[in-house]
Write a structure and sequence with these properties.
The complex is a heterodimer of chains A (about 180) and B (about 250). Chain A is mostly helical. In chain A, about 65% of the residues lie in helices and about 0% in strands. Chain A contains eight helices and no strands. The longest helix of chain A has 29 residues. In chain A, about 45% of the residues are buried. Chain B is an alpha+beta fold and about 250 residues long. Chain B has two domains: about 40 residues; about 140 residues, 2-Layer Sandwich (Phosphorylase Kinase, domain 1). Helices cover about 45% and strands about 20% of the residues of chain B. In chain B, strands 1-2-3-4-7-6-5 form a seven-stranded antiparallel beta sheet, with helices on both faces. In chain B, α1 crosses α2, α1 runs parallel beside α3 and α2 packs across α3. The relative contact order of chain B is 0.09. Classes of the chains: A mainly alpha (about 180), B alpha+beta (about 250). Chains A and B meet through α1, α2, α3, α4 and α5 of A and α1, α3, α4, α5 and α6 of B. The structure holds zinc ion. The site of zinc ion has 6 residues of chain B, from α1 and α3.
């Protein structure tokens, strides 16, 4: 295979994943410029290891490299005070202290009336190891099996992380909403 | 199925990830249980809000072109022993990254470019060990290793035979440091591996300290003839310094 053929083959596999790659990197790094750096570096790495790619789902393959590159970036740019995953406690999210809203009363449904911008802030506040799973599921619509491949974790771990991420979002969302209701704000 | 089991399956149910038997059992439970129906409904609402309200960040204009140009600038690279894409190996290296990350939080220094360069090299060293991909060209013969880099890099790393001094050559590989290709020469001393990275001696390279330690690895840096050298190893500082002086002295 000539270099030109190799590059063309790589681009056929990798370039259709560019939006997914950027979206994941953007949610993990939190800004456009760093997301672009991460994606560029990931594509160079992927090109380097392209001979090891034996077909299969190009999206999972590419996203696994983007994810690893993004985590290396996060590692390098971790600021003092950033909470590492192991020590993260859901109570540090602006979370609800009470139980969930009565689900069968549509007027009380906090989620329905929630503010979209706040939703983005809450996702950004999730630890990266929950954010990647959530973004891959909710925005990329990936099956658990593919998420497991991208993140290098068992399917059972995908399920539990996803459930925890969503529980944190529901809790964080419901508290201010209920406060608003009870204090007439 | 009871409520506890239903609660544990609520996310997978909404995601369509239950197998047919469990899906049927779940549906039967939901028919008779308003509380669990509420749990499922809440998840559906969150999913709907996320797909409608969370931004999907599409790649910016021109990124595909910029990547294409970067690929053109990348060296031709076709390793003899291609590294397979192995999820199991990835999982192993991820576990290591996780272990290293809790360690790294102890470091409070603000990262600078030299820091990033060192991080990349230590990461490259660890990755090579973890992925069992130390060398693209495995040979103890300097006359085999040196020409292997021809045409793959814009620099020609000097490859020295230090076998008689106790540092046999294992081989070489192409690695990436700070987004650019670099040569990695692999030596061994007793059971320890030394990765010697060779890259152009630019401003970023000059920003790295002569001696440093991170994540349990020692790193020694020096410049010679327009090239920057970084020796990374779990070897003790004195042994690594001996390797450094041998590299610098041997012609
Ligand atoms: Zn129930």
């Amino acid at each position: 295979m000539t270099d030109i053929e190799r590059k063309a083959r790589f681009e056929r596999v990798a370039l259709p994943q560019l939006d997914a790659a950027f979206n994941l990197a953007r949610w993990l790094t939190g800004n456009d410029r760093d997301a672009e750096d991460v994606v560029q570096e990931a594509y160079l790495r992927a090109f380097r290891y392209f001979d090891g790619y034996r077909g299969g789902d190009g999206r999972s393959w590419m996203l696994s490299i983007v994810r690893r590159t993004a985590f290396t970036w996060l590692e390098r740019n971790r600021r003092p005070g950033t909470v590492p995953f192991e020590e993260f406690d859901a109570s540090e999210m602006p979370a609800a202290d009470g139980g969930s809203a009565p689900p069968d009363d549509p007027e009380q449904s906090a989620i329905r009336s929630a503010d979209r911008r706040r939703l983005g802030e809450l996702i950004a506040a999730l630890p990266a190891q929950f954010r990647d799973v959530l973004v891959l599921r909710e925005l990329e619509d990936m099956p658990y099996r593919d998420i497991a491949t991208v993140c290098g974790i068992p399917v059972g771990t995908v399920m539990s992380r996803l459930a925890r991420a969503r529980a944190m979002l529901r809790q964080a969302w419901i508290r201010p909403q209920r406060k608003g209701l009870s204090h007439g704000l | 199925m009871d409520c506890r089991q239903a609660a544990a399956r609520a996310d997978a149910f909404v995601d369509g990830e239950l197998d047919p038997a469990e899906r049927a059992a779940m549906a039967a439970h939901l028919l008779g249980c308003a509380a669990c129906r509420g749990q499922v409904e809440e998840r559906r609402e969150l999913a709907a809000a996320l797909s409608a309200g969370a931004t999907y960040h599409r790649a910016p204009e021109g990124l595909a072109e910029r990547i294409g140009a970067a690929l053109d600038a990348a060296p031709a690279f076709a390793p003899g022993r291609a590294q397979r894409w192995r999820p199991a190996a990835l999982a192993a290296s991820l576990a290591l990254v996780a272990a290293l990350s809790s360690f790294a939080t102890l470091r409070l220094a603000v990262p600078d470019p030299g820091d990033a360069l060192l991080d990349d090299m230590v990461a490259g060293h660890v990755r090579a060990l973890m992925a069992d991909h130390l060398t693209d060209v495995a040979s103890s013969d300097q006359h085999t290793v040196k020409p292997w880099f021809n045409g793959k890099l814009n620099l020609s790393p000097p490859v020295k035979d230090l076998t008689t001094s106790g540092f046999p050559l294992v081989g070489g590989r192409l690695d990436y440091v700070a987004g650019r290709p670099a040569a990695a020469l692999v030596y061994r001393h007793r059971q320890h591996v030394i990765n010697l990275f060779v890259a152009p001696d630019d401003a970023r390279a000059a920003a790295t300290p002569a001696a440093s330690a991170r994540q349990g690895y020692n790193v020694l840096h020096w410049s010679d003839g327009g090239l920057g050298y970084w020796a990374v190893s779990d070897l003790g500082a004195a042994d690594l310094a001996q390797f450094q002086s041998l590299m610098r002295e041997t012609r």
